[in-house]
Specification:
heterodimer; A: mainly alpha; two-stranded antiparallel ribbon; B: about 260 residues; alpha/beta; 6-stranded mixed beta sheet; 10 helices; about 40% helix; globular
Amino acid sequence: MSKYSLTLLAFLFFVLAVGLSWAGTLSPYLQLVLMFVGVNIMMSSSLNLVNGYMGEFSCGHAGFMAVGAYTTSLLTVWFFTSGSVFGPNLLPPAWAAALFPFILLFGGLIAALAGLLVAFPSFRTRGDYLAIITLAVNFIVKSAIENIQPIGGARGFMGMGRVINGMKEVADIPWMMIWTWVFAFLTILLIKRFVSSTYGKGIIAIRDDEIAAEIMGVNTRRAKMVAFMLSSGVAGLAGGLFAHILGYINPGSFGIMKSTEALVMVYLGGMGSLSGSVLSAIVFTLLLEVLRPLQLYKWVVVPLILILLMLFRTEGLLGHRELTDVFPRLKRIFGSKEEVHGAL
Amino acid sequence: MALFEIRGLTHFFGGLKAVSNFNVTFEGGELMGLIGPNGAGKTTIFNLVCGVYHPSHGDLRIEGRSLSRLFPHQVTALGIARTFQNIRLWPEMSVLDNVRVAHNYKLSYGFLDTIFQTSRYRREEKGIDRRSEEVLEIMGLRDHARELAKNLPYGLQRKVEIARALVIRPKLLLLDEPSAGMNLGEKEALIGLIRWIRKEFNLTLWLIEHEMRVVMNLCEKIQVLDFGEMIADGRPDEIQSNPRVVEAYLGKEID
């Protein structure tokens, strides 16, 4: 029974979040925060795959989020709404309810392909130099979107709200809450399965000693490609969800600031710790909301917290460990199938 | 056909000739030594064999297949494993994981199998777990399986490195200065261990070593390298009395 209690807990949370949103107990504002927590979990855990597990320093994660956000939004708006940009809708708006996850996955796929922009240079460089390349990719994506006028350029793109309205005609349930958390849970499962396989542990070997990894039989090029594509693909999914939660996106929201937020969450939670990333995404998102009354001073307080964290707990909340390693008692409750697996 | 042979191996680092026209043949089952002063090019030869560098000239073949343009992981898949001069375990991984990851060279499942945990994935992971435990058991490391590699004492880290190499079921095992940093007792134990794994796993071994006691004790045939060139080749007793070897190590005698 303990083996399933984590799944049970997740399911309970899901039912509660969706149920309370549907019943209207949760205010729209709280619903929004809750959905951002889900999006941020996806951002931090996917970035952790590259920065924590593989030991590279990618600082352009928002670029891939933008690719996913724009791909998904353009497709849904083109398919399901009639407007000035794409003309009349191609498909009945109600179909959005069924087709949305597939379009979202397609957006993730395109973002994963964009991830190759970083994966190929990573064969030859690493460390600081690769970090600069990721930064450049972030700028390329943002500037490219800003300069494509038909999709709004720097003014941004909207119309996703009408797509959601189309879904609501099928059934009046909190669609985005459902999809956000379904994909957030899928992300956690995906990354957990990946890094606990012999195949995925190859990327931890790359972090610990790349030359030894290569000589002891790890196909490092393929491993890097898979890790970068997986990471950027999930960021793309997060972007697609983000776009449909807000109903409006502009290139400005996918700048260095967003990438930095993802980095902060990874370092706050701890490198190479999946539960750390989940925890820090929750803490960070809520913290930003709690500090909202401080307005701009929020951006003094949050970095200050980060400085203190780096001074007194360099490895983050759960560096290289999982919650069950820190509180062994949790293992009895959640009974993680794996025993302590070193870096996991 | 020889198990492994190197013909006319030459390698340049820029203008520096690190290895010059090196030849060797393993028929299978030998335990050969490669010695020489610091900077003679011994480790470079191992790196050329493993595919870390691609040779400027010359040919390397295992069972007739050329290695000279392969990536390291492809060389590994053909049955060549090695250990490193300064231990290169994956320090933040457990001993068991260190050994498990070495199975990557012949994984039959792919990315999607790990995500959906298909039956092929489960079967293979089970096999990997079993073989890893087996190797650790044989090497006497079972009690340390869950410890992080970095927390083990030096001698045990060496052993883990050898265990990790054995997982690959190598036809040819390269040991790069296995006794470096060991005390006398550990060296004695190492000699015993090398003899034993050779018999147990039916290995062909190639050894780089500085410690004369270890080389003379173990090897049937020794090659001596100086400034990238082979200056002597023969049985241990022949090498010990070879004037060119003495000169390379100790310098010329003044009349």
